[in-house]
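#dry-run=false #mode=assembly
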Amino acid sequence: MLDLIAPFFERLNETTGLNFSPFYDSYDWGRLVEGMTVSVKLIAAIIALSLVIGVVGAGAQTSRLKLVRGLVAAYIEVFRNTPPIVQLLFFYFGLGAITPQVDMGGWYEPMIGSFGWAVIAIGIFGGSYNVEIFRSGVEAVPDSTKEAAESLGFSGFQIFVYVTLPLAFRICLPALTNNIISLAKTSSLAYVIAVPEITYSLSGIWSDSVNVPEMMVLLFAYYIVLVAIIARVMTMIERRLALPGYGQ
Amino acid sequence: MTEGWTVSRLTWRAPVLAACLCLAASLAAVAQDEAAARPSALDSLVTWMPFILKGFGLNLLMSVLAMAFATVTGVILGFMQISPLALIRVPAKLVTHLFRNSPWLVILFAIMLLVPFQITLPGGERILIPDWVKATFGFALPVMANISEILRGAVMSIPTGQWESADSLAMTRGQTLRHIILPQCIRRMMPPWMNWYALLTLMTPMAAILGVDEALGNTQAAMEAAGSRPEFLIPFYLFLMTIFFVFIYPISLYTRRLEKRFAAAS
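#status=ok
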């Protein structure tokens, strides 16, 4: 792959001064590829965690216990109304300092690395939005549907899992798409705790090769393509799941 | 982030939550403080509090300036997006999508690294641009794109019948926009506009990465100056989260109330 495009970009650098070093330098190419892989993995993990939190949180909000509902509400308010970057630093430095170390046979490593903390912190941040999104979906499911399920002998938990959740998921998909896209963008915050995702690895390249504008173009292009792909996938899911009688 | 969350109840939670955060900060500080010879983490926090709050002042200044700039440019961009001329509409759409779909951090980097630190006026005078001004500009761009989109959405949400009746009264496009469409749009745009202000303020600590002395940067500097002991981390960061929470929470509560009132009215 690199052999194919390298001569072109090398000539581009010599003739015009546009230095896209990852496209002809094998070391920078490696950094770019690693950055993209880590970034995609990070985004996938963050989205997965935030979805789990969203479902669990929305379920907990239907609880009869006032304490549980209060806790979920407090969680939402705290994480939505404080800066995500400070949350990330708080998790990584504050809580990271007191998590146990693991014996790796001679040296010690923290149990959760920077990647892990980035997933936890940004996942929890995104989850606080997902809880509200799922809750609005759950509330939009008609009571009569739930009553019908009840009359068929479903238990409360079964109703939530088999009836409410599948319907709620479809109702809140557009809002969910918004939040997933914004989470994918927020993943670049992991730069702050030196997770080698795309922003971090490209910043490494531009401080080595002093080609900020070119790398910026690359970075913008990466995110725009990524957002377009996510949006496309979500529209496909939306269409696949569409129920007759709902929406258009 | 997501526009139009309609959310729930209870106002007393704000002070209680803030108090809890503060309490947790002090507890964390006290719990870890056994070596009594050195000043405790809490004492250090109290000593450095004015310094951190001064930094927070810069956060507020940046957020207000960025919001003002983003509102003006965003509204202009939004009008360009609904222009009947493709020559104006298409570039406006491109700009909006570029800044809406890129992360804050990337836009901030682009502005900080690509805008020169000084500009030469035509007269030969040189003006230095301070870092925080560049950061403000960087924060304004994504908000601008989103305000442009909010305006477009609001105009689209006005029923076509309104345009047609204005047409039948022989109003020009400009008159229709000014007297019929916009007054209705402003009401619809208010809640998302405030949401974006809150979000913008929450993003301003990112400027610390690029060396602006705002609240986060000052907190880190304070921890270092006080001896960078690991037990500082939790109380200092919790305190930082608390000041942002105390400022943002009333705004988001008020936004929700507005949203509810408008939802009921329309």
